[in-house]
Structure formats: structure tokens, C-alpha cells
Amino acid sequence: MTISHDDGRAFEELLGENLDVLYRSALRLCGGREADAEDLLQEAVLKAFRRFDQLRDPQAGLGWMLTILTRTHLNAVRSRRRRAETLMGDYDDGAFEQALMEWQPLPS
User: Fold this and answer.
1) CA-CA distance, 65 to 11, in Å (whole number)?
2) How far, in Å, CA of 58 to CA of 11, rounded?
């Protein structure tokens, strides 16, 4: 897919008009963690830019971008859950209990 100069400008305008709403939504989805919200927003904006030619109605741009943001977040949550399930299966019961007692969340 090739984005024309006009498409790039149109996307920039759409993003500029809605960036505050998108950031606040990302922040809410990430539980107030600013760094995570910024990462989520960046990934969603990149996906939206790559698929900008699929936006049929420019008037629905905000809803379209919010859908991409929400789906990007849900996919990341699902991916983390799958990874966690895989990792938990690598321990026997004693080692898992020990690891659970020692576990501390990483700062985001």
C-alpha cells in the first residue's frame, strides 16, 4: 500500500483533531499508566496510518481510530495472558510457589 501525500495530510489532520481524546482513552485503558498509554497510542496510530485507505467515511474517523486503539489494547492483554500461562507451565508446584512469593511487578 502506498500512502499519497494527500492521504498523509488527511491522516495528520484526523489525528490532530482527535489526539487528546485518543490519549485520554489510552490512559484509561492502561489504568492511568502514562508510559503504557503512550506506547499503546503509538502502536494504534501506526496501525491506523497503515490502514488509512480502509476508512470509508472520514466523518467516522474518531470511532474508527478508537476501535483500532481498543483492539490493539485487547490484543496486547490477550498476548500477555497467553505468555503468562506458558511461563507458569514451566515450573513444578514447589518452584512455582517459590517464584510467586518472590515475584514483584516491574515498574512500567
Assistant:
1) 11
2) 10
Considering only residues 3 and 17, tell me which one the structure prediction assigns the higher pLDDT: 17
Exposed/middle/buried for 10, CB within 10 Å: 0-12, 13-18, 19+? middle
pLDDT, position 2? 47
Cell 490502514 maps to which residue?
51
Nearest to 68 by CA among 13, 4, 33, 18: 18
**Are the C-beta atoms of 99 and 91 separated by less than 8 Å?**
yes
Q: What is the C-alpha separation between 52 and 77, in angstroms, rounded?
A: 24
Reported confidence tier of residue 87, pLDDT bands at 50, 70, 90? low
Phi-psi region of 35 (alpha: psi -120 to 50; beta: other; left: phi over 0): alpha
